[in-house]
């Protein structure tokens, strides 16, 4: 497989949005309950992600093709924490690119980015999405709660700047 390039999404034009929707829809095949209500939902949701977290919207490219993306928000108000934390809003790889380590490269980019701004990250994952839960646990996320079919996971980070108190 060709080399993976991770880059910040430069703009969300129509063509890019359509590719991201395609990846999103494919990524949730067989788990429809977590992937929203189809393409119009995906389009609205991905636009929301872009407007909320442009700086942390990273794509993985193999050649010219987008293989997957992760949306990392450094400025998310968590009602569970009662403060601002980092959040992973969306993280999905095209099925045909899964199993090649691309997800790891994206996650590392996200953690590096959020580590500059946040001391804690939260994300939500579908309770039946065991592969994803295991993936997050391998990165040090732990389950801290559940709401309906969604499991809330958090990871504590050491701020990269290093605090005087440490």
From TrEMBL:
InterPro entries: Acyl_CoA_acyltransferase, GNAT_dom, MshD_Acetyltransferase. Residues 7-158 form the N-acetyltransferase domain. One of its GO terms (molecular function) is acyltransferase activity, transferring groups other than amino-acyl groups. Keywords: Transferase. PROSITE patterns: GNAT. SUPFAM superfamilies: Acyl-CoA N-acyltransferases (Nat). CDD domains: NAT_SF. This is GNAT family N-acetyltransferase. It comes from Thermococcus aciditolerans.
